[in-house]
Write a structure and sequence with these properties.
Keywords: DNA-binding, Transcription, Transcription regulation. The protein is of the alpha/beta class. The chain has 3 domains: 3-52, 434 Repressor (Amino-terminal Domain) (Orthogonal Bundle); 69-170 and 301-329, Rossmann fold (3-Layer(aba) Sandwich), CATH 3.40.50.2300; 172-300 and 334-339, Response regulator (Rossmann fold), CATH 3.40.50. It is built from 14 helices and 12 strands. The strands form 2 sheets. The protein has a 6-stranded parallel β-sheet with strand order 2-1-3-4-5-11, with helices on both faces. Strands 7-6-8-9-10-12 form a 6-stranded mixed β-sheet, with helices on both faces. Strand 8 (251-255), helix 12 and strand 9 (279-285) form a beta-alpha-beta unit. Helix 1 packs across helix 3 (38-51), helix 6 packs across helix 14 and helix 11 packs across helix 12. It starts with 11 loop residues before the first helix and ends in a 24-residue tail after the last strand.
């Protein structure tokens, strides 16, 4: 290679000349190796490696009519709580290169997940597939994606038709049951519960987390009072104040999210209780709220969920058909000061968080 070509990127023509084959043969080696004789296949691959040839992703995309991109709707994912959304998007972004795709976030004016934003992304050929979030009973998106044969995978079970879809989800019932067992192991007595209302499209998530607490606490005969509120700090603090009324120092509260747990913390301090020594508090999600405020929390396995979803999408893109699969992944309880009974002081109060709605 001439001096002036020393730093030039190798082309498909360079590989063809070096291997003494046609440009089409090189293309077949890269895209359809089963069409090439073994000895030619090996010779071309050696020249590809020697020259450091890398096919143009843009050209490959034009030939396959693929964008190499996976869309994710910010409207939907942010409703799960901004901290969890941020962590989930980070895990998806980190995992995407391993699956030869990149993420394209988008949003729509609709206040709840609808198909319009997805239709627009497909119409403009910006993405090849989608990751869904905030799935719920009556969700219109899976049916439209199935009908149009657009690959997708969902963070959360597709409750209307789980047998037809690819999804990964956290086992919410297992998580709150772990929280109850942790509190009993730490010596707390009654265990109350603060969760979300069940009369809404996304109620299956609320019910699963409530069920884990109810089953585990009832089995021990220590189920305390229960309350519900919106995914909003002001509402959670108000509901927690009423929930704590019949409780006594030495009791505890399991919450459906870290944000609700923070509401319990504020309500407890307003009563002069120390969170940890006097009142045990466990949140759910493993969000930044939990680490910032010293909360014991049930962490969602977001990295595993992201990999499972992108893997399912890759299988669909390469195989041409959706293979129904569901993975219910186990969460992990991470202890924090909010369940430390041996502490002499409770966890410190910091400035209130911004309200975050589910």
């Amino acid at each position: 290679m001439r001096r002036e070509d020393a730093h030039r990127r190798a082309t498909i023509n360079d590989v063809a000349r070096a291997a003494a084959v046609s440009r089409q043969t090189v293309s077949n080696v890269l895209n359809k190796p089963h069409l090439v004789r073994p000895e030619t296949l090996e010779r071309v691959r050696q020249e590809v490696d020697r020259l450091g040839y890398r096919p143009s992703q843009a050209a490959q995309g034009m030939r396959s009519q693929r964008a190499g991109a996976v869309g994710i709707e910010l409207n939907a994912v942010q409703r799960a709580g901004s901290d969890v959304a941020q962590l989930f998007l980070t895990e998806l972004t980190v995992a995407a290169p391993r699956f030869d795709v990149h993420l394209v976030p988008f949003a729509h004016e609709s206040t709840f997940p609808a198909v319009e934003g997805y239709q627009d992304m497909v119409r403009r050929r910006l993405v090849d597939a989608f990751v869904l979030s905030d799935t719920h009973v009556g969700d219109p998106r899976p049916e439209w994606l199935l009908q149009t044969r657009i690959p997708f995978a969902a963070f959360g079970r597709l409750y209307d038709q789980p047998e037809l879809t690819c999804w990964a989800d956290v086992d919410g019932a297992s998580g709150t049951a772990q929280a109850v067992e942790h509190l009993h192991a730490r010596g707390y007595r009654r265990v109350a519960y603060l969760g979300w209302p069940h009369d809404r499209p996304a109620s299956a998530v609320a019910e699963a987390r409530w069920e884990g607490w109810s089953t585990a606490a009832s089995a021990r005969g220590t189920a305390g009072p229960e309350g519900t509120c919106e995914q909003d700090l002001t509402d959670a603090t108000r509901a927690a104040d009423a929930l704590l009324e019949p409780l006594e120092p030495g009791d505890a509260v399991v919450c459906a999210s870290d944000l609700l747990a923070l509401g319990v913390v504020y309500a407890a301090y307003a009563r002069g209780w120390r969170v940890g020594p006097d009142l045990g508090v466990v949140g759910f999600d493993g969000s930044l709220i939990a680490s910032r405020h010293g909360l014991t929390t049930v962490e969602q396995p977001l990295a595993l969920i992201a990999a499972a979803l992108l893997g399912g999408i890759t299988d669909q893109l390469t195989g041409g058909a959706l293979t129904p699969s569901g993975q219910l992944l186990e969460p992990t309880l991470t202890p924090g000061p909010s369940t430390d009974r041996s502490a002499t002081t409770g966890i410190p109060i910091t400035a209130p968080e911004q309200s975050s709605r589910r």
